[in-house]
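During the practical work, I worked with a single protein chain and the tokens that describe its fold, as given directly below.
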Amino acid sequence: MLLKNLKSLSILLGMKCNCKCPHCFYFPKKNNYAPIDPGMLDDALKSISGEHNIASVNFAGGEPFYYFDTMIECMERLKKNGIYFFSLSTNAGWAANIHEVEKKLSILVRHGLGAMWVSADSFHQQGVPLQNVMNIINAGEAMRNMGAQLSISIVSTYLGYFTYDCSMNRKTSEIRRQVWDANIYPIETFVNAHGRGAFLIPKELCINKKLDRKCWEVKMGMLHPGGPSMVSMDPSGYVDGCFGVSLGNLKKNSLMDIFRRYFNKPGPIVKILRETGALGLKKFAEKRGFHPEDGYFDECHLCHITRNYLKKNCREEFEEFLKPQFCYPPVEDNKVHAFADWNREKN
């Protein structure tokens, strides 16, 4: 079995979102909100039939509930390919009416939804009332009391570490306490140093210097030499081994051909990351004029800042391998820096 390590997929249904979170991985600069083609997904899975161990699929975006009908169709296509467990990540912007929540969750559970990850923190509550999150919690509890097998997890994202004291984190802690009072333990996570998030990390937390872990050690199984444990697919056809590390495009090649390339001719970015990790990529970029900082938040932070440099300054050489474009915001993104300045002033 060629893809024995491949156990899950992340499917970006579309990029439309009701939130404009400054830490978001993705940065679509054009209003191209077309949904993913379920037929493309179907063809991709048929091309690797019998060669993988995919047991679960997570739907994300954008906000997946803008693409409700597409999500249902994707579930049906996936089940025909032997995949029966689904989860989704949502910001709850759609959940203002509890009766609508109950209706949509019932439909999704009938089609195989087993888990939901709901955001509740200072980033998302700038645009989504916390009551929407509570509506999902209450609807999920009612469904479980009726025998539905649906797990709902509330996820709170902190800037840096959850013990890092700043105004955003204090607000997130307040939101978590309200969720806790609803008898749900909210999981804490932190801003990942991908996309715009790479430029939000406070300087005083960029102290790590060793940074010698490989990708599959930082994010378990990602870009593993024996094959990735998870890949993502987006509406434009890109298959990503990690955010902004394209393995290929389904509109040009079959998924099996993309994986054969991964093992045999992965291209310079994947090859360096697999063999020497973020430190190796840093040394590679230094030969092309990159000037690294003394320390970084983690290996992912170093990797993304380095790749952002290569994409901006060595476009002709690496354009093919540093996609999709919406994973690479411009360094001078004023909204990100304005947010960072605002947060420092509020500390």
Remarks:
- Residues 8-90+192-343 form one domain.
